[in-house]
Amino acid sequence: MQSWLHVEQAREWIDRIEAAWSRRSIVWLVGVRRTGKTVLCQSLPSVRYLDCELPSVRRQLTDPEAFLASVGSGRVVLDEIHRLDQPAELLKVAADHFPGVRIVATGSSTLGASSRSSVVR
């Protein structure tokens, strides 16, 4: 029974993220540590998952324009985005210049999320 409950809860959260993506290209998924944000994001269909705690990922994201161009019109999870040197810059470039890219950014704070993003809690 408990496993079914987790599947149902995950489906509900995935539906909420999909609904938020229909309104905005950037979705913030915020919550305290160890609440399942990473597992949820890894279960989203057709996403490129990037763990921003990894130095190799942070290097990959140093040129937001080149990175976003490589994504095309895809979907990306930027897990623990607060670990980037300039997370707000990357998200602003995405919102202003790459509206076809769908991003879920996770972390324990909103980094000053604006009206260009939807916050899912």
Quick structural gist:
This protein is an alpha/beta fold. It has a single domain, classed as Rossmann fold (3-Layer(aba) Sandwich), CATH 3.40.50.300. It has five helices and five strands, in the order αβαβααβαββ.
Give structural notes.
The protein is of the alpha/beta class. It has one domain (2-120): 3-Layer(aba) Sandwich (Rossmann fold), CATH 3.40.50.300. The chain is built from five helices and five strands. The chain has helices at residues 2-23, 37-42, 55-60, 64-71, 87-97; strands at 26-30, 48-51, 75-79, 102-107, 117-120. Strand 3, helix 5 and strand 4 form a beta-alpha-beta unit. The longest helix has 22 residues, at 2-23. The chain is globular, with a radius of gyration of 14 Å. Residues 1-5 have low confidence and may be disordered.
What is the CATH T-level topology? Rossmann fold
Q: What is the percent of helical residues?
A: 40-55%
Please identify the structural class as seen in this structure: alpha/beta
Helix/strand order, N-terminal first:
HEHEHHEHEE
Number of helices: 5
Order of strands, main sheet, comes to 2-3-4-1-5
Number of domains: 1
Count the E strands. Answer: 5
Strand content: 15-25%
CATH architecture: 3-Layer(aba) Sandwich
Fourth-level CATH superfamily: P-loop containing nucleotide triphosphate hydrolases
| Stretches with pLDDT under 50, minimum 5 residues | 1-5
